[in-house]
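To the team - iron/sulfur cluster complex, inputs and output below.
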Amino acid sequence: MPQRIQVDIKEIETVLNEILSTKFPPVARCRLLSSGFSPGHCLNITGNIAGHKECLGCGNCIDICPALAREPHRRDKTEQRTSMALETLVGEDCDLCYACALSCPQVDTTIKHYIVNCRLVEVMSRLAQRIGDDQEPDLDLFLEEAIDAY
Ligand code: SF4
Ligand code: SF4
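Output:
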């Protein structure tokens, strides 16, 4: 069975960088830029869903989002665990940390590698600038521990 060909970053780099620079949860748009289900998926269904890009409702992006971890009451608005719920709960308060896109099973590995190799340095420097903000004690603690570890 031919394996899924993942998206070529060179073909989407401009639009991907626009997505990754916009203060809004990026996971759904990264998913739509991706190649969708592998033909070798192991779901117990008979239909051919290769190439489908739908949100699986797995909730990985909801669980890993630091904006929701810092303010868990936001999750009271809905029990849904989809990218649409993430967009509703976080919206423009997104930290642009990209954890949602990195945790999504429907986002291509090529996109994840691009984020890790080309965008995470910028994320860390943005987070470092926020050390000392009284409004973000959890972030302080997290970063101090991370920096101490080096
Ligand atoms: S995981 Fe990060 S990038 Fe995704 S919505 Fe939450 S804060 Fe934004
Ligand atoms: S991580 Fe799961 S819930 Fe979030 S967008 Fe991807 S498939 Fe949907």
